[in-house]
Batch of 2 targets.
Target 1
Amino acid sequence: MGPRHPLRIAAALFALAAACLGAHAAEYGGPLFDAHLHYNEEAWDGDSGPYPPAEALARMQRNGVKAIIANSRPNAGTQTLAAAQETRAAGVTVVPFVRLYRNRDDYSNWFRDESIYEMVQAELARGTASGPYRGLGEFHLYDSANANGAVARKLIVLAEQKKLAVLAHVDDTAIDLLMAHSPSKGQAMRLIWAHTGIGGPPVSRVRTLLERYPLLMGELSYRPGLTCEGGMLCPEWRDLILRYPDRFVVGSDTWVNQRWSAYDQIMGGYRRWLAELPPEVAQRIAWGNAAALFGLR
Ligand SMILES: [Zn+2]
């Protein structure tokens, strides 16, 4: 066939059209790792609630969520998901984290409450039906100085020694304080920064922290300034993600039931801005970075 053969021209046009469509895909179509998921008692208390395991798992499955960092208040929710037959049927891998809260009072006391440290030890010893716990958190520090609480210090040391990740909802000042308490001074500390700072510290500050702590990862739910018009990445965030493609993850943060009801929209929002990134970068943020952290295939 010569170069001007109609079939060859048609094939070339088809390939060109496919390439254009690929470059402007509306959504990232690969797997997602939900790296910030709560299964709290108001979602389902083991008996009643609007989101029993079958319902929660159906939401993950239809959104292509293949793995989750699961944590819950109390830890019974994580234990349930880790053991549920529905979890395996949905093809979801549970990476369990120990939540530091038995109830809402613990949010503002965990960092100085010795009984929380004991609860963590007991939970770690117990493990889950999906294997040992892989991390601690999510925990909150509304006042960064509480990173210096006696129990906060002990938990950070424990996490690094046991190679547990921590999921921390803290400000940028507390990142430095927590890292300073780890035996390696933050060089071997696997810290997932929930929301990458919900107060919205500047991108330049986020970058400084990423450079200072090699295993620091930013989770992007609720991140102020992340997306601009049409839900697409703002330019400075696009630049940051392209510069550190192995340091960001995404999560649903189902901290209240409204987030379960909006689960499709939350994941759809991620899929839209992921599609603007080069495919290999999108795959890392959506799946690969969290999967590598926990040794998933
Ligand atoms: Zn959360």
Target 2
Amino acid sequence: MLRQTKSWVALVLILQVLGAIFNAVDAKPFRILLDTDVATDDFFAFFYLLKLNRSEFELETITINTNIWSDAGHAVNHIYDMLYMMNRDDIAVGVGREGGILEDGTILPNVGGYLPIIEQGMTSAGYCRYRQVIPVGHGGRLCTDTNFGIRKAFLPHGSRKYSPLQQPTAQQVMIETISAGPIIVFLIGAHTNLAIFLMNNPHLKKNIEHIYVIGGGIRSENPSGCCFGNASLSCQPDMCGYPGNLFTDYNSNPYAEFNIFGDPFAAYQVYHSGIPITIVPLDATDTIPITEHFFKAFEESQRTYEAKYCFQSLKTKLAPLSADKSDTMGLQDPSCFVENGKGKCKDGYTMEVTGPGAVHVLVATKAKPNPDVHSKLDQQFFISFLDVSSYYLNFNLSDISNSTHIDQM
Ligand SMILES: *[C@@H]1O[C@H](CO)[C@@H](O)[C@H](O)[C@H]1NC(C)=O
Ligand SMILES: *[C@@H]1O[C@H](CO)[C@@H](O)[C@H](O)[C@H]1NC(C)=O
Ligand SMILES: *[C@@H]1O[C@H](CO)[C@@H](O)[C@H](O)[C@H]1NC(C)=O
Ligand SMILES: *[C@@H]1O[C@H](CO)[C@@H](O)[C@H](O)[C@H]1NC(C)=O
């Protein structure tokens, strides 16, 4: 059930920690750049971020990763419409454009970022060594691009929309935002955009104070949250005992997690950049499965439009899982199988190592329990998320829009 809830859960955890730091230091907000593939869990995190106190957390820029779960035009329009709903048309949004990497290694300014770095040539179309693990239709990109069909029906539309040749590029907005001063970067999709940025602008590295990565599986052995005697209909017990979550390719590569697998070389660049990094891997997010109690509490507390949108998305997303999990075939690389039918490929595995090739990163391991032991919501995260999602910002949609779309849900 929790297969893709991780970005959202993890971002809330990080922000709680940063909130504590904030009170201790000076009074400037943390400037934030969010790089996302706009999957369901990602936009939950994005709404949460937008609703925090802007004197403490200022989300300035969003860059979109289009290597894995989503396609550029849909992802940009989705973000624009959500920003419009939140009265935040001021936030810059960047995505790749034509550009590329020349044979001699020269990286052109508007490099697309539609492909993993090692496959990026002078075109935005290419082989899909990693992306083929993502189903194109049901359960995959179609669902992310349309948010299960509810995106256009629910969200109001402002004046910003995707415009192929005029859309600001990810690299442009990254350069503008990061050169403006110290910043924190959240990577909640594959790492292509930031890796290209770092390779091209090493002099701006010093402005990135910290990178928070939602991705990887390190010591997790229960990535589907339902192993070892607790199997139910929605479980995939074959995923037990290994750290990864490539549910479409699990038999050939049980080690990788999607966000890293989407562009392993980009992840390598980011981790070896020398910038302080915290990884929130499946190990940590596995400790917060979505419980029935949470689902119910969320259903009952949908006061704001953003809470309604998130709840409807979650409900739609979870619905087909128990009934139909068959339509998710991706890559099944026969050269990766060993005798017992389990894979040996480890592309994209965030493995613990020591020695000269190793880098130091902080790794989150476990969510905080709810201090109220009598509450049915056992994790502090649930309380925080519901609180934040249900309060009103100091405007209402009717103030900014005459949209009729908004009342349909
Ligand atoms: C937002 O944060 C600032 C700085 O910590 C604080 O002074 C202010 O009271 C906060 N506003 C709200 C509405 O909590
Ligand atoms: C199954 O889940 C229940 C409730 O979450 C838990 O108390 C129990 O320890 C789990 N059993 C196993 C074998 O993991
Ligand atoms: C927005 O609407 C809600 C529900 O009708 C109301 O409680 C809240 O006060 C409104 N906020 C503003 C700023 O008008
Ligand atoms: C909303 O409707 C009013 C009255 O019909 C109109 O004057 C105004 O321009 C509209 N605003 C937008 C943003 O469409």
